[in-house]
Amino acid sequence: MTGSASSVQAVAEKTSFTGAPPIPGRGLVATYMAITAIVLALLMVFGLIMRASQAGFITVPPNRFYQLLTAHGIGMVAIVGLGGAGVMWYFLSRYVSLSRGILLANLVCFLLGVVLVLGAIFLGGFAAAWTFLFPLPAKPLGVWGVEATACYLIGVLLVGVGFLLLYLDTARAILSKYGSLGKALGWPQAFGKSTADAPPPTVVASTVVTIINIPAIAVGAVILTMSLVNALAPSFRVNALLAKNLIYFFGHVFINSTIYMAVIGVYEILPAFTGRPWKSSRPFLLAWTATMLMVLAVYPHHLFMDYANPTWANVLGQILSYTSSLPVLAVTAMATLANVYRSGMKWNVTTSLLFVSIMGWSVGVVPAVLDGTIAINRVMHNTLWVPGHFHIYLLLGVVAMLFGFMYFLGMSTGASDSAVDRAAVWLYIAGGLGFAISFLAAGAVSVPRRWAVHDAPWMAYDRVGALFALAVVVGAVAFVAAFLRRARAIGA
Amino acid sequence: MEQRIAVLVSAVIGTLLIALFATVARSARNTGSANDIAQSAARWRRTTFWGLVVLFVPTIAYSLTKTPYGHDLREAGAVVQATGHQWAWEITPSTVRAGQLVEIRVTGSDVNHGFGVYDTTDRLVTQTQGMPGFTNVIRHTFTTPGTYRIRCLEYCGLGHHTMVSQLVVTAAQAVQ
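ok -> C-alpha cells follow
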C-alpha cells in the first residue's frame, strides 16, 4: 500500500500545503503531537503488560494490574484528546483566529493534571478505573487513601479545565468569523436556500466538537467535584444512578469528540494527495448536525444493565446507537472511498494510515451497534466484547489518524518514508485487527472485562491477544521514533 | 444465541467492509473521472443510507421486544436476594428450582457491582448492576439444572476478580 520514497516526495510537492503560509502555532502543535506520541507508546506498553499478565506470560499483582488499568484508561482518553486537539487546532487555525496562549494553557493544565493523576495512581495506589464510578473512589477498602483520590480527581479536573479553555477559545474564534454556530455548521446551506459556499469541513467538525464538549466537560467537572467532596466529607452522598448518568454522558461525548477532532486530518490531508477536495455537501452538513444531536443523547447505552434507569432513556439509547452509525457508514466511509477510488494516488504512510483509520472506524461501528442492542448487551455488557469494539475504532481509527497526521507533519521537513515505516504500517494494522478480534472472541465466550486474573480456559484468547498487542507496540514505536526524529524540525 | 448472532453479523459485515476498503485501495493506482465517481458515490450513499434504515427499523422493533425490563408479569416461583459487598456476594436462598420463574433482586451495599449469571457451560445468560441505593430485578427461568456461577461484572476494586459465587438450580422434581 505504500509507495517509494521518491514518489512520496513527489506527491508531497503537489499538495496544496507546500508553499502555504506557516502555521503560527506549528511548534506548539508539534509539541502536542510529540507528547501524544510518547504517551501513546507508553500506554500501549501498559496494555501489553496487562494482556501478558492475563495470559500468564508474566505475573503482575492485582493491585498493580488495576493501577495499570486505571492509568491506561484515563491516559488513553486524555492523550487522544490532546492529539485530536492538536490536529483540530492545526487545521482550524487556517480558517479562524485561534489563541496560541490558550493552546499553551491547555498543555500546561494537561501536564499538571497528568502529574497529579500519575502520582495518585503509582504513588498513592489509586485504582478506581478511568470511569471512577461513584462511590468507588472514596470506598477503596483501605487499598488507597483519600489523598490519592483527591489527587486523581483534581488531576482529571485540571485536564478538563484546560480542554474547556481550548473549546471556549474555538467557540470565540468561530463566532467571530461566522457570526453564529448555526452558520458555522452550515445550516443556511443544509436547511435553507442559501447558495453561498458552506463553511469548510474542518470548521463544521470543529464547531460540533466545540458545542458537544463544553457541556460534556462541565458535566464531568460536576461529578468530579461531587466525588471529591464525598471523598473528603463522606456524609455528602450522591445518588449512584445520577452519578453514572453524569459520568457516562461526559465520558461518551468526550471520547467520541476525539475521533471528530482527529478526522479533520482525513478531511484536509487525503484530498491533497488525491486531488479531490472534500466539500461540505448538504449530506455532509446534515450528517454532522445529526451526529452532534445523537452523540449528546446516546450515552444511556452504557446503562442498559441498570434496570433502574428510565426505560425510555435506555430504549432511546438503543435507537440512537443504530442511527449514529448512519453518518459514519453512509457519509464518512462513502466519501473516503469516493475520494480515493481511481484517484491515481500513490500510497505513502500518511495516506495509508488515514485511509485505514476510516476503515477502522467503520468496522468498529458494527460490534458496537450490536452491543448497543439491549437484548445483546444483556450477555455482552462488561465482557471483553466491549474493549474489542472500542479498540477497533480507537486503535485502528483515532490513533491511526493521529499517527497519519504525525507523518504528514514529518513530510513538511522533507522526510520520506523508510522501509521500516512502511513495514510498521502493516504490522500495526495486522496487530490491531488481531488484538481487537482476540478481545471480541473472548467476549463472545463471556470472559469478563477488567479482571486481573483469568481462569485457565480463557487464557488462550489472552495469549493470542498479547502476541498481537506486541505487534501493535512494535509498529507504534516505529511511528513514534520516526516522528520524534522529525519533531524538532517541524517546530522550526 | 445472542453471542452467536453478534459474532456472525460482526464477522460478515466487518469482512465485507475490509474487502471494500482493500478493493478501493488497490484501485487508487488507476485514474477515473472525479465527477463520474462523485455521482456514483452519491447513489451509493443513498442506497447505503436507505438500505440501513430498512434493515434497522424491523431489527430495532423486534429486539426491543426482548429487553429484560419487566415484560414478564407472572408471579415469581422464587425470590432471591443478591447483595454485592466488596468483595463477596450474599445470595439468599442460593438454591432454586428449574422451570420456575425466579425473581432475583440485586443491590450493592457499598459500591457498584455487576451480577453476572453464567450457565453450566460457563456462558453469560443474564446480568444486571448491583448499585448502592437501588434494587434491579432480574426475572429469569432456569431450564437446565446445575451450578450457575455468579461473577462480578462491574469493576469494584482490588478484589473484583475474586467476587465469584454460585446459584444452584435443582431439577424440578428434586424439590417436589
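The mean pLDDT of chain B is 93.
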